[in-house]
Amino acid sequence: MKNKDTKSSAYHDTSSRIIPMTIMLIVLCGFSFYLGGIYFSEKNRFFKQDVAPAILHKKSVLAPLRIESVEFPECSSDYQDYTPCTDPKRWKKYGNYRLSFMERHCPPMVERKECLVPPPAGYKVPIRWPKSRDQCWYRNVPYDWINNQKSNQHWLRKEGEKFIFPGGGTMFPNGVGAYVDLMQDLIPGMKNGTIRTAIDTGCGVASWGGDLLDRGILTVSLAPRDNHEAQVQFALERGIPAILGIISTQRLPFPSNSFDMAHCSRCLIPWTEFDGIYLLEIHRILRPGGFWVLSGPPVNYENRWRGWNTTVEEQKANFDKIKKLLTSMCFKLYQIKDDIAVWQKSVDNSCYDQLNPSSFPPKCDDSMDPDSAWYIPLRTCLNVPSQKLKKLALKSAPRWPKRLHMAPERIAVVPGGNSGGFKHDDSKWKVRVKHYKTLLPALGSDKIRNVMDMNTLYGGFAAALISYPVWVMNVVSSYGPNSLGVVYDRGLIGTYHDWCEAFSTYPRTYDLLHFDGLFTAESHRCEMKYVLLEMDRILRPNGYVIIRESNYFVEAIASIAKGIRWDCQKHDTEYNVEKEKLLICQKKLWYAKQGQR
Question: Can you give the pTM of this predicted structure?
Answer without folding.
Answer: 0.89
